[in-house]
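Internal tracking record. Fields below are filled automatically when a chain is submitted to the structure queue. Please do not edit lines marked as system-generated. If the sequence contains nonstandard residues, flag them in the REMARKS field before resubmitting.
Queue: standard
Priority: normal
Entity type: single polypeptide chain
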Amino acid sequence: MSKADQLTEPLAHHGEGAVWYSGWGGLKWVDMYAGDILSLELETGRVSRLHVGSPIAAVVRPRTAGGFVVATERELSLWDDGVRQWSTPPLWSDPERRFNEGGCDPTGGIICGSMVSNDGPMAAEVFRMDAAGTVERLFGDVRISNGLGFTSDGTRMYYVDTPTRRIDVFDADRGRLFDRRPFVTVEEGRGYPDGLWVDDQDGVWVALYAGSAVHHYNSEGVLEDIVEVGATQVTSCTFGGANLDTLFITTSRENLSEKEQPMAGAVFSVPVGVRGLPVLTYGA
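SYSTEM-GENERATED OUTPUT FOLLOWS
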């Protein structure tokens, strides 16, 4: 068991979507409901914000051609130099649904799931946008679509629908997903799986909302390590640093009073002794 150190001030109300990309010069994450993308300069500790005009679904991924792709409440959009260049039309009209989390696949597409904001039926869905900007529905019967990530050879995708407390795994082939099955079930009382990242041994590191921790499961689904975090609501994690062997972790202050958990909303970091897979990029 290891313990993460606080890296930033508690700058986000609901921090999410940590991503490290060398082309950006480091770490980005989002303050979801504020609609801000935060960028950290590690050398100076300076954090800048870019407001995108809508809540962000914790998905910011680099584009192969430069800039990044963002999922907002109901749209996927392309950005460069801080300016929106293009976006899809809204993909639904239901005000109780919004995009929530996702990531790129090995073919250059982006997969992003949605969630419903009430306690209704499993009405959310998962979509994929290919490198040409064409969007298709992949599957439904989802409540809170959350973290996803591919194995090193691109043949499997790990996936979280948070209320199930499971990490599932799909077989993957050229943008298609098959044979969904359980990979790990998080024990009741240890939190709910949220964002995840995959290491170069195909192990899964998953943030546990209401769990004050990140769990590391090896490629066989065996719990190998627990990273303790100084805030209850742990939302996402990613690997970064020069050797991709430091884990960066986001947290949330949502539903906390001003005096509760003073470190909540900060980014934490910890060296973990394994390398993460680099972020996949969007586009051809």
